Amino acid sequence: MGDEFHKPTLFAGSTFEAFQGGDDPAQISRLAHDTAAALLSRVRADPDPQVIERLIAYTDVNGIDAIAELWSRASARSLPGALWRIYLLRALTRQDPEQSAFVFQRGAEISSTIDPVVAGAQAPTGPDEITELADQILRGLFEGDFAVALERAAAFCRLMSTGCASLADDAETVSPGRASELTTRALRFHSIAAELTACATLWRSDSLD
What we know:
By secondary structure, the protein is mostly helical. It is about 70% helix and about 0% strand.
């Protein structure tokens, strides 16, 4: 699969594994913050179900690159940065629901935390369940407790990270290249989980800009 974006965007695994949020505040466009704040305040003030469903399905029609153009360069600990990460996670999940469900289920099975409960996926988690979970998390940004939606997404990422790390251990002997790929992906999920948790804390203190 090529790395060139098209609509709707399908992106190679390496695109996700290489993904790093923008950390330099000097590069953050004011437009990213303004559009994120305007969108969120407008929809949450009048949560029309049809509008919310269109926002959830937006990247299915327009591609993840349309969202990336607005928000992907924003700081990880910002409102546009949080929105970008949730949309990215949904796009990744929907692109390969079978593999996503397999990794998530592995993480949930070996997790010793409350993350499976926080994430809120039905168990066992198959392709339909993981897709619905991704939609629920995104929907929660617009019509539920915003911080809770971020915490659910963070728990989702931690379970994906755990699942990737476990599968990397399995593959280490027979396929070192695959093990390395899974380890890199586990680290990315872990990082995004930490960023979303920080965003939830900032939101609760009315400090997420």
